[in-house]
Amino acid sequence: EIIMEQGLKLVLINVNGLNIPTKRRRMLSKIEKQKMDVVCLQEVHIKKQDESLLQYKKLGKLYTTLAEEKESGRIILIVELFVGRKSILLVGIYAPNKNQSEFYKNTHDKIIELGNQNVCVIGDYNTIVDIQKDYTSEQKCKFKRNILPKAFFEMSEELNLMDLWRTLNPGVTQFTFYSNPHKSWSRIDMQLEDKKAIKPQAQMAYQENSTKI
User: What's the chain look like in SS3?
Assistant: First the structure.
């Protein structure tokens, strides 16, 4: 998922584990070649005590929210970035499958507490915005796909946040996650930005991660 906005290049990658040394080296080398300004990795499956495995000097400073033991989603990482003189609050999330209302309320409260008006929320939201546009299934008896809770929409409205990809691609259908048990596709990875910050030259695209082990 590659976003270009105001000259800032950002990539979000679901790496599905980086414990295997060969895979980790190839992935980090591939990212280096993309010449991104900001790299967000999710599902690294590396524990807090092994954080040094993600250190890669050529990629710059490392920020993590690694757990001491393996656990399910419910991750928030907030970093303040400066693009020229402009301050941007980058909020990386990995939402849980359950108790999403509480998760988004807590995320909202934390953003308000930090008081930055320029906010970008990027990550795996673990469910969808619109059942018609962001979900499809190959099965006749379709699995009931939940949509994001009221707390998410309240956060988006109060912070003036827009789904960047959907704003740039209003009539396009594209998905980011395939569920083999349910034979279904969903668009659960998103970047939300302040409406006023979305410029005409902004670009965003979903790309398949093809790095081999």
Answer: CEEEECCEEEEEEECCCCCCHHHHHHHHHHHHHCCCCEEEEECCCCCHHHHHHHCCHHHCCCCCCCCCCCCCCCEEEEEEEEECCEEEEEEEEECCCCCHHHHHHHHHHHHHHHCCCCEEEEEECCCECCCCCCEEECCCCCCCCCECCHHHHHHHHHCCEEEHHHHHCCCCCCCCEEECCCCEEECCEEEEEEHHHCCCCCEEECCCCCCCC
